[in-house]
Amino acid sequence: MRKPFYNLTMTGRTRRMHVLARAALQHYPIEIKSIRQMSDDWNYIFRVVATDGSKYVLRVAYPDCYSVQETRSEMTFLNWLATETELTVTRPVSGKDGELVYIVKVDGVPEARNCVLFEWITGSDLGDQPSVENFETLGRLSATLHTQSYNFPAPDDFDIMVADTLYNPKDEAFLFRPEHAHLMTAEQRATLERAATMVEAATKALWTQPGKCVIHGDLHGWNVMLAKDGTPMLIDFEDIAWGYPLQDIAVTFYYLFVEDDEEGYDYATDTEAFKRGYESVTEWPVPDQDTLNTFIIRRALDLCNFVVGSEDPEMKEFAPKMVERTVTRIEKIWA
C-alpha cells in the first residue's frame, strides 16, 4: 500500500509531483528535455527545458484553492499587462488546444491540481539584492501596476478574489477556533483578537471609499525579478484581487518589516525609498501611518491563520511558533 502523500518526506512528495508535472506537460506542444523542481514553498514550481533549448516555468497550484475560471482570469490580466502596458510580466503559454489552464490528477497525489505554463524570464530576485535603488524601483513598479490597473477592461467572466476580508478570502477563519486554543496563551490570544478587531474595522472603512482596482496581492521583492539591465519583471499573480493600492503596499511593507534584521535591510530606509519611487509615478495612497500599520498586521494575521488551519503535518508542528512570531511582530509594530 502506498504511503499517503502528506505522510511522505519532502523528497517523496517531490517524486510524485514530478509525475504530475510530466502529465501536465503532455498538454503542450513542446518536447521535454528536462524538468527540475525550483520551489515547493506554496505551489510546486518546475523549470522546464525543451529539446529546442527553449525554457519555461510550470506552476502546479496548491490544491483546492483557486478555480479554473479564477486562474483563467489571472491569465487574462497577465496577457493584458503584457500587451497593453509597459510592464514586463510572465507570459502564459497556450496548450495544444489553445487552453491556458489544465486540471491534472495522477495516482499518489490526493488532489487534482491546476497547472499553468509560463515563458521563462531571465533575472534575479530583487529581494536578494536589497538596496535603496532597488526599493525605489519596487516603488515605481508598484505605482505603475496600480495606475495601469485602473484602465483594465475586465471581461464579464473575470472572476478573482475580493480583498475585503480579515484573512485571505480563500481561507476559513481558523485562528480563534476552540480546537486551536492550545496553540496560544491567553495573553497571545488577547493580542491577536485586538489586532483582528482593528483590521476588520479598517477594512470595513476602506471598502466604503472609491479607488478599487486589480491589485497583485503578494507584491514583495521575491515576486519581482531584475534583468541584467535592471528592468524589473513582475511574477506570481496568483493572488490578484479587487482591492486598493494601500493593501498591496502593506504586503510589501510587511516583508520589508520581517527582513529588517537581515543583512542589507533597514525598514525605515527601505520604506522611504519605496515611497519615493511610488510618488515619482503617482500620488501616495496611504492616508496615515496607523492605517498602513493596521494593514501590515493584516498580512501577519492572514499568514498565521493559514498555518494554524493547515492539515499539513509540518505546518501543524510549526503552528505554535508561528503564533509566537506573529504576536511578537504585532507588538513590535504597535511599539
| Total count of domains | 2
CATH class of the largest domain: Alpha Beta
What is the ordering of alpha helices and beta strands?
HEEEHEEEEHEHEEEEHHHH
Distance between the termini: 54 Å
Mean pLDDT: 95
Radius of gyration: 20 Å
Give the beta-strand count: 12
Largest sheet: 5 strands, antiparallel
Oligomer: single chain
Count of helical stretches = 8
Structure description:
The protein is α+β, with helices and mostly antiparallel strands and 335 residues long. The protein has 2 domains: 5-121, Phosphorylase Kinase, domain 1, CATH 3.30.200.20; 125-334, Aminoglycoside phosphotransferase (APH), C-terminal lobe (Aminoglycoside 3'-phosphotransferase, Chain: A, domain 2). Helices cover 42% and strands 15% of the residues. The chain has helices at residues 10-25, 68-84, 132-149, 186-206, 245-258, 267-279, 289-309, 313-334, and strands at 32-39, 44-50, 55-60, 88-89, 102-104, 113-119, 124-125, 161-162, 213-215, 224-226, 232-234, 241-243. The chain has a 5-stranded antiparallel beta sheet with strand order 1-2-3-6-5, with helices on one face. A hairpin with a 4-residue loop joins strand 2 and strand 3. The relative contact order is 0.13.
Topology:
Elements: H1 10-25, E1 32-39, E2 44-50, E3 55-60, H2 68-84, E4 88-89, E5 102-104, E6 113-119, E7 124-125, H3 132-149, E8 161-162, H4 186-206, E9 213-215, E10 224-226, E11 232-234, E12 241-243, H5 245-258, H6 267-279, H7 289-309, H8 313-334
Parallel strand pairs: 4-11, 8-12
Antiparallel strand pairs: 1-2, 2-3, 3-6, 5-6, 7-10, 9-12, 10-11
